[in-house]
Design brief:
Length: 406
């Protein structure tokens, strides 16, 4: 299979992690044993990283075709569920144009530093951009085209918000794709073809490493659909399992044997777009700028996954806004009783947060906790009362959505 995609440095601050992958390198590594032919990667890279890329190519058995740029792009993530900051700042002005890329099976990713013009019999296009462009806008062609994208990218491309309208708009017109694969995060995947719509489950794992998971999904889907000739629905199901395995283990390549272990170790879940949004109570301190930032970030992430969030600082207010402590406390407790789940921010050992999660457990409400650095001495009552605690935000967010819908 031919892959056109990025080779990037990836840095995550919380939890601390560094890697050299990017969409193209990770995809080529993921499908080493899935695609039977020799795989090729077309990418852009700075001169100081050429030897590293050659090492990866030798390790994962793929050929490389390199366009040199002044400096390899770096993605800096604050946490493993955040949008990255890119460097160098001029990377988006490199305007690289990779052309002459053609073959029977092609996977094209969006590029930070330019664009790839591809042609093929079966082509998979994953725009991977907050400002995605149509597949054929740069002159790319395909006998059969599969579009793989997330909900935000789909809304940007179509100008629609409602899922039914998004799918209809994507499939319409003479240049519409033959397949649309719409990724809906923790809720699952929808595959649309001219003849049918198929719901593909996401496979729940306790640990969810989100960085690069989309690369793995698109790579395995492309390997199965474009290279191996599987149906779009079957290819998406295999890709969903492979992504779950990657999120849990971060192991590449991903063989068929490893993919099939997911069926025995992870629960398949599909949350209907028509499902009632779960109500999640966000418990956490908000008394300084750092605490308030975390509350705002987690509220946004939960809402982006389809939850209705009750946040005391936003929806109830501070104690100073009320005539008595009893009045504000009762509003907090009433909100917990209405919630399907409590998401607790456990850093700083805030007494109010601990009281709220204790009340929730007494009421039988599940609690998901996030903490950056959990002290052993603080674990006994929290874990012992059935709270699930995660030390990375991606795992906490995904498991909160799954538990709230259970």
């Amino acid at each position: 299979m031919i892959i056109a995609g990025g080779a990037y440095h990836e840095l995550c601050q919380f939890p601390s992690d560094t890697a050299f992958f990017g969409s193209g390198v990770r995809a080529a590594a993921a499908i080493e044993t899935i695609a039977p032919s020799s795989n090729q990667l077309h990418t852009c890279i700075g001169p100081t990283d050429k030897e590293t890329l050659k090492t990866y190519a030798a390790t994962f058995d793929f050929d490389i075709h390199v366009t040199e740029i002044p400096e390899t792009v770096s993605f800096d993530y604050l946490h493993n569920h955040s949008n990255p900051v890119l460097s160098p700042s001029e990377a988006t002005n490199y305007n690289c144009k990779l052309s002459g890329i053609s073959g029977d099976a092609v996977l094209r990713f969006g590029f930070v530093e330019g664009t790839a013009i591809v042609s093929g019999e079966r082509v998979v296009y994953d725009p991977q951009s907050s400002d995605p462009v149509p597949f054929d806008a740069n002159g790319s062609t395909a006998d059969e085209l599969a579009l793989v994208l997330n909900r935000d990218e789909a809304a940007q491309l179509t100008g629609k918000d409602e899922l039914r309208l998004i799918l209809t708009e994507l499939m319409s017109g003479t240049t519409g794709p033959d397949v649309v694969v719409l990724k809906c995060g923790a809720r699952g995947v929808i595959v649309r073809t001219p003849s049918m719509t198929t719901r593909i489950p996401v496979f729940q794992t306790e640990s969810v490493w989100g960085i690069g998971s989309g690369d793995v999904f698109s790579a395995i889907f492309a390997g199965e659909w474009a290279e191996n000739g599987e149906t779009a629905a079957d290819a998406a199901l295999t890709a969903s399992k492979a992504t779950a395995y990657y999120c849990r283990h971060r192991h590449l390549p991903i063989s068929r044997e490893l993919i099939e272990t997911v069926s025995n170790s992870a629960s398949p879940t599909f949350i209907s777009p028509d499902a009632t949004p779960p109500t999640i109570y966000l418990a956490g301190p908000f008394f300084d700028i750092g605490e308030r930032f975390v509350v705002e970030e987690v509220k946004h992430l939960l809402e982006s996954e389809g939850a209705d969030v009750i946040s005391p600082v936003h929806d109830i207010g501070r104690a100073a806004d009320y005539d008595s402590p009893e009045e504000v406390a009762q509003q907090d407790l009433d909100a917990i009783e209405r919630a399907d789940l409590v998401f607790a921010l456990l850093d700083h050992l805030d007494s109010g947060t601990h009281f709220e999660l204790g009340y929730a457990r007494k009421e039988g409400t599940p609690v998901i906790g996030y903490v950056n650095d959990f002290e052993t001495s603080s674990e006994t009552m929290i874990r012992g009362s059935g709270c699930e605690v995660y030390e990375d935000l991606s795992s906490a967010i995904y498991n909160a959505i799954w538990r709230a819908h259970a």
